[in-house]
Design goal:
- The protein has helices at 2-18, 22-33, 38-43, 54-77, 82-89, 108-122, 136-139, 176-185, 225-240, 282-287, 304-312, 325-328; strands at residues 126-128, 133-135, 159-160, 168-170, 189-198, 210-220, 246-250, 256-266, 270-280, 296-303.
- By secondary structure, the chain is an alpha+beta fold.
- The protein binds 3,4-dihydroxyphenylalanine (DAH).
């Protein structure tokens, strides 16, 4: 065995001497040191060596191999500038005109969503996703809006054929994620969910059948309207990058009590409604699997589309889904 090790060593060194290019060194590495390489094969014979000298032979094999690997690596490094020279030799025609590629940009809606997400995560809110085709249960029922409730009328939407089973709808708001989140994560809880919502509402150029909302929910102990106002104020100022006045007006939403309409002040338009908010209704907390005597919380939902239109003074909502490059390139 010792002899075989010596032979293999000499054979390798001889081959290495004659090598004149990097690829041949790589091939040699493969030949000797890979899984099926000659050294690997040789090491399998160790088991046939007599017990008393096996440790010595093993150590020899190891040392020889390590030294040779270093020699081979050293040889390879002498070809280090192979690439450099081949680039220098290449002939590049710098006079050929390059194609006129136009770089795209991120849609302003995505940018605003990202900013909102950042602002919320800085306040410890996790971002969740919810399904855009939502069950009647999460979209309405669990939010204290049973099938007979008149508040459903203001959120007409597409109903998805469910063959007589529990109906599914194109979600009319992001509020359905509230109950899903409580069921999944329990309390205390801070979460936001944003995304597309759908309504039979394309009545003028400021309303579309599809738009974006962001929903927030905080559930904990001893939570009050003051926490809600503080959170919203911080958020709106972050998005607009200046102090923006907001106000709450009494408003009715079945899933909060008390409930508010949320307005922000715009220099051009005065007070503009941007969403709804309130203290989460005990029925909703119960639907989320929590005890309303133990936990309270606030919730709010805002039209991100509306926020975006106000921020950039966009008057026609359809531009946002138009993919018109003249419009999009302005951002
Ligand atoms: N989901 C309501 C809408 O789309 C907005 C809303 C109001 C969300 C009050 C809330 C809330 O979370 O507490 O009109």
């Amino acid at each position: 065995m010792q002899e075989k090790i010596q032979q293999l060593k000499e054979q390798l060194l001889q081959e290495l001497e004659q090598i004149k290019e990097a690829q041949a060194v790589i091939d040699l590495q493969e030949k000797y040191f890979s899984k099926k390489g000659l050294f690997t094969t040789l090491s399998k014979d160790l088991k046939d060596v007599a017990d008393d000298i096996r440790p010595k032979v093993g150590a020899l094999l190891h040392d020889v191999k390590t030294q040779l690997q270093a020699d081979v690596a050293q040889k390879l490094s002498t070809y280090g500038d192979v690439l450099k020279t081949s680039f220098q030799d290449a002939w590049i025609d710098t006079s050929i005109a390059t194609p006129d590629y136009k770089l795209g940009n991120i849609h302003p809606m995505s940018v605003m969503m990202q900013e909102l997400e950042d602002a919320f995560s800085a306040m410890g809110f996790m971002t969740l996703d919810g399904p855009e085709i939502e069950s009647d249960y999460y979209n309405f029922e669990a939010l204290n809006m049973p099938s007979w409730h008149p508040a459903r009328d203001s959120q007409d939407t597409f109903y998805v054929d469910s063959k007589g089973k529990c109906p599914w709808v194109m979600r009319t708001h992001t509020s359905g994620v509230q109950v899903r989140a409580m069921q999944k994560y329990g309390a205390p809880l801070r979460m936001v969910a944003h995304g597309r919502v759908y309504r039979n509402e394309a009545t003028d150029i400021t309303h579309d059948h599809t738009f974006h909302q962001i929903e927030g929910l905080l559930i904990d102990k001893n939570i009050s309207v003051a926490h809600l106002i503080g959170t919203l104020q911080e958020l709106i100022s972050t998005v607009y990058k200046k102090d923006v006045k907001i106000r709450l007006r009494p408003g009715y939403f079945p899933f909060v009590e008390p409930g508010f309409e949320l307005d922000m002040y715009s220099d051009e338009l005065g007070w503009v409604e941007i969403g709804g908010a309130g203290m989460v209704h005990p029925h909703v907390i119960t639907a989320g699997g929590l005890d309303p005597n133990e936990y309270q919380g606030f919730a709010f939902g805002m039209g991100v589309t509306r926020l975006l239109m106000l921020k950039y003074k966009i008057s026609d909502i359809r531009l946002l889904s138009s993919a018109d490059i003249r419009f999009l390139q302005q951002f």
